[in-house]
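Regression test attached.
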Amino acid sequence: MNIVVLVKQVPDTWSERKLTDADHTLDRESADAVLDEINERAVEEALQLQEAHGGEVTVIAMGPDRATDAIRKALSMGADKAIHVSDEALHGSDVLATAKVLAKAIGTVENVDLVIAGNEATDGRAGAVPAILAELLGLPQVTQLRKVTVEGTTIKGERETDEGVAFLEASLPAVVSVTEKINEPRYPSFKGIMAAKKKPVSTVTVADLGIDASEVGLSGAYTQVLEAAPKPPRSAGQRVEDGGDGGSKIAEFLVGQKLI
Amino acid sequence: MSFVESEERIALRKAVSEFGAKYGHDYFIAKARAGEKTTELWEEAGKLGYLGVAVPEEYGGGGGGIGDLAAVCEELAAAGCPLLLMVVSPAICATVIARFGTEEQKSKWLPGFADGTLKMAFAITEPDAGSNSHKLRTNVRRDGDDWVLKGTKTYISGIDEVDAVLVVAIQQTGPVLVVVPTSAEGFTWHQIGMDLVAPEKQFTLFFDDVRLPSDAVVGSPDQGLLQVFAGLNPERIMGASMATGSARLAVSKAVTYAQQRTVWGSPIGSHQGLAHPLAKIHIEIELARLMTQKAAALYDSGRDKEAGEAANMAKYAAGEAIAAAVDQAIQTYGGNGLTAEFGLASMLGMSRMARIAPVSREMVLNFVAQNSLKLPRSY
């Protein structure tokens, strides 16, 4: 079973993330760049499916040059090869352009049975790319999964929502997205780290994928950020003096917040 | 010449650092206080190949060098989990066996070092000889095809959790290295009470005519001294790495606290009385790390003699850096620095151990005075 995993390099969620003043896109210099945590889980799921069903795992990433670090991490976990779409023209791309580029990149991989993505990235948080991608590829989409199994040419998944758990099924090939509950990602072993350097990574531009540069990037985006402001500092909170009734005051507060 | 580590080394550091963070300093202290071992951590690190990075590939290891192993040790220590047995088992014992062991000895022992399923202690220090290998009295003699070992060793780490111990003993032609299984008849030990917060315990060992098979002596009995020195350089490099890792942890705790703790309207880290000592120690740690990496690079390129000088200097610098780092971190925290909650006081004993073991600061200074500066011996 040949699997494509989509990975994204994002600013470390523990660092302070900023937008640039010039065009309100992500200020990549302001924070450490890491492989998005949800993508580590997507890679882990692909590797587990590969261990059970064989085949090849291909990582696809779209991002600037330094996204190679995120790609190396996925390869050191055990993925077989990678495609890195890197092009200045992609700067500021929206979800539609991103999905379009990724669809073309997936098209360069032969006999893809399954595309696995995280449900949303920790930076953009649109959470729309997997669904758009499935539409563009004409494949069934099984999104927001906490569990994935493959039986023959059928993929089964569990989607957890506030209302309950949905049990979903689709025929392969398909696009799935996974949530943070899907698994615990492995740490790269020393052998995995050493092997990663020798694994093939092909770097392609938008032109290589047959896309016109004007369709992507800030100029091709359907939305525009006009203004951005840093989030206000956390307010001081509410102070309750315990005059013997502290317990009931805490309960009142929690009821007021609809937590109990 | 490059002062930047390879991409793989940097990736290894990152991976080990994330792995170590899963356990962390609180886990390590809790295990030590409960009298338990960090077994889960050791086993998982072994499975990931982190403990066997320097074991040759044909025996299941990573095929890297002491520099890689030292990076693992440092990053685990910086994550709050300094593993004392890494300094002896994969660094000294596996290195000596890989370099000097017979084919049978390598096949027997190295795969276990590669995945961490085998642990081996190292015993050189004696009650009357310290680490002076010329005055060792533990002796081993031939008896038919067997070897018979007699003597006492002290301050030996982790004997209660290892499969065997590599013992430096004297025979007619000089020192030899002997592998003694902990199950050997006539081999007993008792624990030395230490005020160190560490899962690994210290022991005095007694070998009462312990009978060992002919393959117990590593490699050729004539090359013992060379083997001992080949094992001691990795030990110093690893000791230095564990110390700089722990020193990084102490400084990072102090820096976090100095940024958060506010008195009279500003964080205490804005006061030079606290900022400058931390800056100075940060510099000293970086210098010690640089010398440690140099020593490892020399050792891994087969330059034993130059590696020896650099490893001693690295060990000295790292020992001073961690003693200063823990001292200043506690001072930064004030009273909080002595609480159990913040974990700094638990590092005090270990911070002084790095000045004493595996070779004391004074012996390093003797070595440098005589070998680097050609000054006359005082003893």
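Expected vs. actual: identical. The first strand of chain B starts at residue 120 and ends at 123.
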